[in-house]
Design a protein that fits this description.
Strand content: 5-15%
Largest sheet: 4 strands, mixed
Strand order of the largest sheet: 1-2-4-3
Number of helices: 4
Number of strands: 4
Helix content: 25-40%
CATH architecture of the domain at 60-123 and 136-176: 2-Layer Sandwich
Structural class: alpha+beta
CATH class of the domain at 60-123 and 136-176: Alpha Beta
Shape: elongated
């Protein structure tokens, strides 16, 4: 196939050439910027106090499966849902664990996973009678609070401590909402 020129009249060609004479090249920086420019993602903030009560989700406690229908709640209590993702928090600091929990739940929801497991661990057991008031299992205590955050709570139907074979009281068996 030959390269074919479009049929342009002489008048159109002269008009085009006259327009091209007024076009000026824009100035370009001589050097590229030393560091890439990052623009933070802008997310709207919603004040939780201003949301009518009808739209607020109740605070989920471990073992609360009231958002599930009877048959689904029974299946969840028996750990019959297939675990589609596991996050192990052993050895993580609280700040790193928070980020990982947030990203894990968000990604699991976006991937249409129905059931995931977060292994928090049971905390260090100490035999010192003097230290009976010290906190044990900080991640075990904090993870349910994180799951109830404004960003994650709408994605979760409920969570329980699973059967011993899945981690018992050192894990959370989480049922996610279906992505719509």
């Amino acid at each position: 196939m030959k390269n074919r020129q479009p049929d342009i009249s002489d008048e159109d060609l002269s008009l085009w050439n006259n327009e091209l004479k007024t076009v000026q090249k824009t100035k370009q920086p001589e050097e590229p910027p030393s560091a890439p420019l990052y623009i933070n993602e802008i997310t709207p903030t919603i004040k939780y106090q201003n949301i009518p009560n009808i739209y607020r989700l109740n605070y989920l406690r471990t073992g609360d499966l009231s958002a599930l229908d009877g048959q689904s709640a029974k299946r969840a209590k028996q750990c019959e849902y297939k675990v589609e993702g596991v996050l192990d928090l052993h050895g993580k600091t609280e700040s790193i664990a928070y980020e990982e929990v947030f990203n894990f739940i968000k990604q699991s929801y976006l991937q249409n996973k129905r059931c995931v497991l977060i292994i928090t661990g049971k905390g260090l057991s100490q035999n010192d009678d003097e230290d009976i008031f010290s906190q044990k299992g900080k991640l075990k205590e904090r993870t349910p609070v994180w799951l109830n955050s404004e960003q994650l709570r709408p994605l979760i139907l409920g969570f329980i401590h699973p059967l011993e074979r899945l981690g018992g009281s050192g894990a959370l068996y989480i049922i996610l909402r279906k992505k719509r």
